[in-house]
Amino acid sequence: MVLSKSKRTYPRATIRKIIKAHCEKNVGRNVDALIYLDYILFVQRLMQNATRKAKEADEKRLQAKDIRKVTMTNEIGVRRP
């Protein structure tokens, strides 16, 4: 799976505002870039696993139920508390 090349950069100001609103600690300079990259990897893994689920069910299209199946079974490698 290849991510499309876009000319726009990620929304750095928006990500920094979200981090500041939800974090009581000071964060480093490039933390927003790392968070954005982690988000992109998460979405990529989610889509790969959902596509696999859809193929297993002989579906021709990826649907919300396939994504729900992946998130409910924790097949994307996310640690839950």
UniProtKB/TrEMBL annotation:
Segments forming a coiled coil: 40-67
Pfam family, one: CENP-W
Keyword tags: Centromere, Chromosome, Coiled coil, Kinetochore, Nucleus
InterPro entries assigned to the protein according to its UniProt record, in alphabetical order: CENP-W, CENP-W/WIP1, Histone-fold
Main location: nucleus
GO BP, one annotated term: mitotic cell cycle
Keyword Nucleus set for record: yes
SUPFAM superfamilies: Histone-fold
Transferase listed as a keyword: no
GO molecular function: DNA binding; protein heterodimerization activity
Subcellular location(s) per record: Chromosome, Centromere, Kinetochore; Nucleus
GO CC term (a single one): nucleoplasm
PANTHER family: CENTROMERE PROTEIN W
Similarity comment: Belongs to the CENP-W/WIP1 family.
Name recorded for this polypeptide: Transcription factor CBF/NF-Y/archaeal histone domain-containing protein
Organism for this UniProt entry: Lithohypha guttulata
